[in-house]
């Protein structure tokens, strides 16, 4: 998967734009940030549905919620901060936004054990 192929799955935001630009211009060992971020996104998204089963009073952890977090990141950190971060740092920030509540995603079988 190329850097651009998985871009359609990510929020339309400055953070993703900067990650993809910096990943493209990165020197040294190749690492497909977009592909790994997409794999992580898919796993977290599929498992996050369990959060509302265990914690029904919490925010619905769907695509809308995640997109809002990326939008908030753009407003708080702004382009001037993104410019200072390298591709790996931007990648880790994205992982944090996707996975921020992942630990609460407990299936019923896990809950009963």
Structure commentary:
With 113 residues, the protein is an all-alpha fold. It has one domain. It contains 5 helices and no strands. The chain has helices spanning 14-24, 33-54, 63-84, 87-99, 108-112. α1 runs antiparallel to α4 (87-99) and α2 runs parallel beside α4 (87-99). It is elongated, with a radius of gyration of 15 Å. It starts with 13 loop residues before the first helix and ends with a helix. The relative contact order is 0.20.
Q: Could you give the topology of this structure?
A:
Blueprint: H1 14-24, H2 33-54, H3 63-84, H4 87-99, H5 108-112
Helix pairs in contact: 1-3, 1-4, 2-4, 3-4
Could you give a short description of this structure?
The protein is mostly helical.
Strand percentage lies at: under 5%
Indicate the percent of residues in helices: 55-70%
What is the overall shape?
elongated
Low-confidence parts, pLDDT < 50 over ≥5 residues?
Answer: 1-6
How many helices? The count is: 5
Topology order in helix (H) and strand (E) letters: HHHHH
Note the main sheet. Answer: none
Number of strands: 0
Could you give the distance between the termini? 38 Å
Mean pLDDT: 85
Tell me the domain tally.
Answer: 1
For the CA atoms, what is the radius of gyration? 15 Å
Structural class: mainly alpha
């Amino acid at each position: 998967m190329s850097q651009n192929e998985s871009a359609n799955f990510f929020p339309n935001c400055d953070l993703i734009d900067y990650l993809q630009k910096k990943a493209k211009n990165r020197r040294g060992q190749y690492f497909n940030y977009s592909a790994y971020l997409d794999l992580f996104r898919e796993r977290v998204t599929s498992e996050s549905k369990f959060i509302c089963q265990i914690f029904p009073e919490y925010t619905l952890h769907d695509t809308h919620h995640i997109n809002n977090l990326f939008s908030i990141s753009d407003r708080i950190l702004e382009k001037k901060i993104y410019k200072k971060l390298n591709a790996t740092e931007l990648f880790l920030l994205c992982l944090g936004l996707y996975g921020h509540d992942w630990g609460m995603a407990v299936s019923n079988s896990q809950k009963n054990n």
